Amino acid sequence: MWGGRFAEGPAAVMREINASIPFDKRMWRQDIAASKAHVAMLATQGVVAQEDAAAISAGLDTVAADYEANGVPDDLTLEDIHMLSEAKLAAAIGPVAGRLHTARSRNDQVATDFRLWVRDAIDQTRTALAALDAALLARAEQHAGDVMPGFTHLQSAQPVTLGHHLMAYHEMIARDATRFADARARMNLCPLGSAALAGTGFPLDRHATAAALGFDGPTRNSLDAVSDRDFAIEYLTAAAQCSLHLSRLAEEFVLWASQPFGFVALSDQWSTGSSIMPQKRNPDAAELVRGHAGRITGCLVSLMVTMKGLPLAYSKDMQDDKPPVFECHDLLGLSIAAMTGMIESATFRTDRMRALAESGYATATDLADWLVREANVPFREAHHITGRAVARAEALAVTLDQVPLADLKAIDPRIDDRVYSVLSVDASVASRTSFGGTAPDNVRAAIRAARGE
Ligand code: ARG
């Protein structure tokens, strides 16, 4: 394609380091679509004759059908998907194929194809996130009133409901979905027509190609259009953030599935056994979701570091933009799907959660709050009194609501038997009615709001 000025072909290693076909063939659909939009516009503008454009367009369909049926060959001599498709087009329709590349460079071509690919990836990710979110909402609804220990420092802190805990992840996932949507809105401009870097003298209608490919319009600066990859970095940023959320949820599943916690039993479908220890049910999928977050973050860092020192406009370093984006998309897709499956099929051990919520003096704050409210005790003093009540419960080896009134009165005579109404874990969660709080009715309202009801 560019051999006119050369007497010798490239060294074998040059060919190999230069070739992106082994990975960029994933963009073949986008490449064909962009070429068809380009040639249709060239014909409308009178740059290419109508019959040549028709032949090229039909030829591109033939190439696409061939890829669909036989896959895309790893032909290193043709460097990349753009050259391969053009070579295949020429093989199918002859020299008229050479008119396709009029007023176009691989620089605007690859920038366009890659935007289309990332846009598709974002759409797929948002569909997958919607399924994950639906699973979270369903399980949260089922467990809106089931008490579990809430933790800070992984120490039993205050009782919450399992529904509330799951809805925390709904919030994170919903924000992640908006980050993908934002990235999509910003990237949805078409580089085609920027040519190599300076634009072109041919009378293109860039608005037409942009519209044909579903873009909101053409990019505004040809140098920027062929040389920036911030759209890919933004996608990776949204993906990395999302993977961090998935990783925290996965980590909780790993913890919760352990024997000391026993909060969740993963279904057989989402567990693996051990080849030596017959009793094992390992949460491998959750561990891999946690692990994948590291790799996805690596993808983001990889592209940021690739881009950081590049002068305008295109440099071949930018060919390295695709592997981290493709890898990220695969890893994130698996992670979201696995998390969805685990959530849908897990059995939450609500009896165990309740028992631990009741055993950890998790309603100590409720006792302190009661002293403030009913006995007008300053909070700091109430905190101290409650600390002594907890110590007494510990000494008696009972829960806080099992400490006899006489013992409580011995600690502070202002305590009376009304206090027991706030010391149960159910009373505690039911009292947390502040907006965004864990009261079961709040959780149900949050679920309805999330569903747009
Ligand atoms: N395979 C190249 C890439 O992915 C296409 C652009 C090549 N442009 C060039 N001027 N060599 O970036």
Task: Explain what the structure shows.
There is one protein chain. This protein is mainly alpha-helical and 453 residues long. 62% of the residues lie in helices and 4% in strands. The chain contains 19 helices and four strands. It has helices at 12-18, 21-24, 28-44, 50-70, 81-93, 106-142, 162-187, 206-212, 222-227, 230-257, 284-307, 322-345, 350-359, 364-375, 379-396, 405-411, 420-423, 425-431, 440-450; strands spanning 147-152, 155-161, 264-265, 347-348. The strands form two sheets. Strands 1-2 form a two-stranded antiparallel sheet. Strand 1 and strand 2 (155-161) form a beta hairpin. The longest helix has 37 residues, at 106-142. It is elongated. The mean pLDDT is 96. Bound molecules: arginine. Arginine (ARG) binds at residues 20, 24, 80, 106-107, 110, 314, 316, 318-319. Residues 20, 24, 80, 106-107, 110, 314, 316, 318-319 line the site of arginine.
